[in-house]
Amino acid sequence: MANAINAFLPEIGTIIKVIDETPTIKSLQVVLDDQGRMRSFRFEPGQVAQLSIFGAGEATFVINSPPTRVEYLQFSVMKAGEVTERIHQCKEGDLVGVRGPLGNWFPYEDMKGKDIYFIGGGIGMAPLRTLLLFMLDNRKDYGAITLLYGARSPQDLCYQEELKEWEARDDMELILTVDREFPAWDKRVGLVPNVLKELAPSPKGKIAITCGPPIMIRFTLQALAELGYKDEQVITTLERRMKCGIGLCGRCNIGTRYVCVDGPVFSLAQLKKLPPEL
Amino acid sequence: MVSLKVLFLAEEKIPVLLKRLSKTSQVFAPVQVSDTVVVFQEFSNGAQVVFDKQASMPPKGVIFPQTEQFLSYTYAKDPENLTRSTVQLDHQVEAKPTLLFGARPCDVQGLAVFDAVFTQGQWQDPSVKARTDATTIVTLLCVKPEGTCFCTSVGGSPTATEGADLALTPVSGGYVAEAITEKGKTMLQDEAFTPAKDKQVKEAERVRAAVKKQDTLPLKQIEQKLIKLFSTEFWEQMSAPCISCGACTYVCPACYCFNITDEPAGMGGERIRTWDSCMFYQYTLEASGHNPRPTKAERYRNRIGHKFSYHPTNYKGQFGCSGCGRCIKACPVSLDIRQVLREATTHG
Amino acid sequence: MDHVARSVKEQAVAVLANIKEAITRELEGLAFVIGWEEGYDPLHAAPFFVRSLADIERLIWNPLCVHNLTSYLPKLKGRKVGIICKGCDSRSIVQLLQEGLIKREELVIIGIPCRGVVDMARIKARVDCSQITDVSFTEKAIAIKTPDGRQEIPLDEVLATKCLSCQYPTPLVYDHLAGAAFSAQRPAAALYAEVEEIEKLDLKERLAHWEKELDRCIRCYACRNACPLCVCQDQCAAESRNPHWFSQRTGVNEKVMWQIMHALHLAGRCTDCGECERACPMDIPIQRIRRKLNKEIKELFEYEAGINPEDTPPLYTFKVEEPTIKEKEW
User: Fewer CB atoms inside 10 A, N or C side of chain B?
Assistant: First the structure.
């Protein structure tokens, strides 16, 4: 649990590995300096943490490694602003602050026995990876698993090594796409929502889980509705500018709900009860 | 009002009383700081305390300072391996005994919002909680509400005493003082408080009963009405004069949004909390450049929605507004929240 | 149409009638016209967006119309709008045109030759404004009624400083002029009286003065957002995190620094409309800082902002030979 005495205080962690995923995305593997805390760190797939670079600030990232593999905590970070630029300058051995786990998580209990259809775009693959690995580690609990993952270009696809592993597995299906033609790219071409419509997976017995840039989420939700998916079958994770991460500073609200506490995981049924502020 | 004990406090005894209490508490009182401006400030000898005028700023800074340090950090090079650093974090939750003297009922109602958000929920703010616990509140009842006041429309009243420890009612020559809590009763032991004469007690009752009624806003079912009223056109019209500054939010007793930033200084620095405003463009601006509320229409809709719908829904009907009217007076374009609420209830 | 013979009241009525008539003719081609209507009490006007013919009746014109409505224009670029402006406001329009921040063809300007608007802080210092029941204007005074009685105050004692030294009462640019034009009636020298008082202090005293005034600043940025020339308010350097120029701390140092920064960004561009000070919810007399820089710019470049749309602000350009800067002789 986050610091019980003062939820604003981060714990110190050390970066043990930096992975260059794409030109704009790096993954950091972090181990908390307090070994006892690291051993007893518990979280659910989909929960986030606030990563601190002291002097630059904090930013929210999904805990990208699954709770079934807790040798370290992984965070995938896209370079975008003050904090993420400084994170990208970090090397192994550098210190960071970690506040977490925060937020809610994927309702994986309710997904047991169902077919799971992941739809990811760009850095949106980060939270999906957590749940996918968790499900693969508990494979018999779930039905067919499919991952549709797209990015702007082949080099913007994250987790390139794992993508190869997932493609080779016979207990899940992997469909990759990029926004337009590229030399040496022999797989699908097209925006993720359009590819989804082409593939037209049947909604029967399925849960669709999507994450990506706001505009991709919007069109993917539209496409899923067109394909006949009911609101309860569709799950997404949202992003907002966050500061406190614990529902106090006010800024990440959508109506009565705070994305940092009542999210970032929302079902479409929940979102439809809230003001349309994607 | 349920009172434990009733005494009288003469006007001329107040500066001496505050000076005496400053020895053991941080005393905040409304002080004249310029020709036209009164703010709650730490009382110092010679300060001109003013009780017959609404302070320009509410006293929320007493439990929620505009700048507050969450932690300080210091990097040091590891002497065994100069390519590595260590970082030391220091933090303190400091709450000195505090006396808030002269808060109006609307100010105290605003503090109740802080209480609900910061000290009662799943996640709590330790410094707001510590300061709230360490603060004694002496409330000054209103006998002359201003033209911009509307506390009675949002569940308050010029003579409300909830949340206060001691209540003062203005009478000739001073105030009738009534204890609301045990803390207030203890305060009354100070020599500045003398037995109240019968006619003073009666004057206080008369004065409270005679407080002129304010206009009532039609806020029944406003929570649901605002959820339905998401039309951009309506909010574009309501927010057209708005200039997206933060005046209304900073002068509001019930506004609590904040920012957290790191302020480096060499090998160390601090992480601070500062007030923030939902009216600023940058409030929800994401690093990617995406902004879920890019125009003032959306931001204004969210402000009204939060105060009169989302917050009451989450907090058992408590409005995020105490009807003090400061936002109307402070707004550079005199946007009147009462008019917006009236339009919202009749629209559609 | 002798402006001296008609009473102030008659003139105001005529001006308002002219405004309404002009808007009635022009409204169809415009998204809206920005003027003033009655505010939340008789002492306050408020900006008002006329969108239909029925709205026109709500317009008012009197010395309470203090707002510089041109502040809305930069964000409205791309739309055709109408705007009512006083002489001082028109200087903001000229400055915005100089900088290419608005397009002349997108505006229908209804200009009003103006004798002055009030400074609310000056009124608040003399009248308990918590309950205003009526406000009216006589030839040279403002009469304010409250439950405590009626007070008549000579207008000159509560007019804004810029009005007491106004050199441009008649708008410099307009499509319709709602009243008879007249030339400057006030002494120009009066403008810098307050600045000169502060210049008499030594540097230490000056800093102490501003620290005292800015202590009550709440860093709400009303001054910045009310300024017609602060078009980068949404990306303001004072809040920028990348690069990180400024601490968000609200100590007096940061607040003094913010005012200096704002004034410097306006140097050579500020038209002395006073919106910054008017907007301040804590009644801090910050216009003096900008006016001081305007004074410096005037002395250094013999230049005043917002007079001629063809001008280039001096800090936007350079001349190889500056008429007033004799580097080689210094």
Answer: C
